[in-house]
Amino acid sequence: MPVQGAGRDEFQRYLDRCASTAATLPGVLFLQNDDGGLERHPCHGIRARLLGFEECAMVLLHLDAPTVDRRFKVLAAKLHDARRVMQERRRRTRELQSLMQEREELLLRLEADAAARVAAERERDGVLAQLYRAGQDERRRLARDLHDHAGQHLVALNFGLRRLLPHLTGPAARNELDGLLGQAQDVGEALRRVTLALRPAALDEFGFVTALRYLVDEWGRATRIGTEMQVSGDEIPLPSEHAITLHRLTQEALTNVAKHAGRPSYASVVLLFSPRHLTLTIDDDGVGFEADEASTLSLVSQGKLGLIGMRERMSLVGGTLDLESSPGQGTSVIARVHLAMDAPHDV
């Protein structure tokens, strides 16, 4: 910076001395700062001499600038702190990256486990469906055997006992034979009930819709509750397991109406056929219940296993079962099954 006044000559003499020797010539310089004041700077002598600039010597002095050093120290400290912060951020970034990688690996394992569980559930459902169909086939075979063999033997026994009547003269013998005929008739009725429980004969003889209509009419006559049945859409022949499942579900739903609906004035059964689905709805105007309480755990705790069985049977044929009810508003049981157009139709 420019040196003015009396100090100019002294400073020039000091520079001349520095320019004339390579030795260190310590001294003190007072330089004006930005505020207009003077700062004391110890000088450690010449650092370099540059010659040939307009035939003048240029001298580079080494000054001690405490203020500048302090500023550099503060800046260095700040740089050190910034470097430490950056290192900490890099460490945290590596930790986050490691956590993200672990999370991705965990998600992949969870997805694999979920896929394996879904595959296992599908395999289980397939096995249960096969067992269900095999069970229905076995029930059909037992019903046919009971009807064809045991039923025929009972008919033959009944006729044989009746042929003995003309040969009996004593009242005691006739009373005994009448008792045997009554027992044979009771056995026949019991056999008929077992056969119907194994396989509703009306399904084989008349088809699903007619058998269901007969079931609804018989239930209405037995309970003296008004009934109606409606069929909408073009009727489609059903696979055997679908027909049996829906028939038994209707039996169970109507039984629940008689047991738990209080004193309903009517019960209706509606069949809605569509090209791909069949919807069966059983409605009543009974006392109803809280539908939210119809979860599996709640039903088990209340001992209401009938609804659980209905849901399980529907799931085995790829169907669903929904309940809609509220206190005082009656109950609707809604069953839906998917109809594959290329599936075999037995009923």
Could you characterize the architecture of this molecule?
- This protein has about 350 residues and is an alpha+beta fold.
- Helices cover about 60% and strands about 20% of the residues.
- Among the domains are: about 5-65, no CATH class; about 205-340, 2-Layer Sandwich (Heat Shock Protein 90), CATH 3.30.565.10.
- The chain starts with 5 loop residues before the first helix and ends in a 9-residue tail after the last strand.
- The model has no long low-confidence stretch (mean pLDDT about 75).
- It has a 5-stranded mixed β-sheet.
Low-confidence stretches: none
Helix-strand string: HEEEHHHHEHEEHHEE
- The CATH topology of the domain at 204-338 is Heat Shock Protein 90
Mean pLDDT across residues: 76
Largest sheet: 5 strands, mixed
Name of the CATH class of the domain at 204-338:
Alpha Beta
Class by SSE composition: alpha+beta
Report the radius of gyration as a whole number of Å. Answer: 51 Å
Helical segment tally? 8
Q: Please give the number of β-strands.
A: 8
Q: Level of helix content?
A: 55-70%
**End-to-end distance:** 113 Å
Q: How would the global form be characterised?
A: rod-shaped
Looking at CATH, the homologous superfamily of the domain at 204-338 is: Histidine kinase-like ATPase, C-terminal domain
If strands are numbered along the chain, what order do they take across the biggest sheet?
A: 4-5-6-8-7
Query: Strand content of the residues, in percent?
Result: 15-25%
What would CATH call the architecture of the domain at 204-338? 2-Layer Sandwich
